[in-house]
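Narrative summary of target 7.
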Amino acid sequence: MNALDRIADEVVACRACPRLVVWREQVARDKVARFAGETYWGRPVPGFGDPHATVAIVGLAPAAHGGNRTGRIFTGDRSGDFLFASMHRCGLANQPTSVARDDGLALQGAYVAAVNRCAPPGNKPTPDERDRCLPFLVRELEALTRLRSIVALGAFAWDGVLRAIAGAGHAIPRPRPRFGHGAEVQVGPYVLIGAFHPSQQNTFTGKLTPEMLDDVLRRASERAVEPAERRKG
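Modeled conformation, tokenized:
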């Protein structure tokens, strides 16, 4: 068993945040009408992808009826539809859809994770819940030995990634880098790039378009193969 597999097993077994345990299990039990016939995952959701990834994509947390239902992050919801279609266009995924853990999706040079691994009420983990979960992301970054660039989907993920990089022993630039779509900064050995989260609130309103997300993902792939000296620029 490799390091990422061990982390995944620990994530799935975690019950460190009582509020989130109650919420994720309640959602899995009560369900919604359109998924009434399905068995929900109802546990923390580990990261997944290529163990030799050079690009990581980090979100906020699993969706209540997406990852919390299917057991895979960004799987079975509209945000995932938007994200994986973009990843496929950019050569980071073998197919444009992600609907179930056994649907044949394979990531190519990419790894997808989240700051928090349980679906939180209102998509808002507390600071304590964030901090209890962050060590998983720290360990994933350390296990992804070829990782060079990280895309943070939204301000919460941007802040969480900065905290995880610091937790791995790397200095954070001062002043602290601010989130923005397309914002880019070198942090330790990584290039961190911000992108608006592919939530329906952003994609339905045009705040985030397919072209905008494609541009960020392609840039992340390019930065991942540039020499460190050029990335620091």
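The beta strands are 48-49, 55-59, 110-114, 149-153, 184-187, 190-195.
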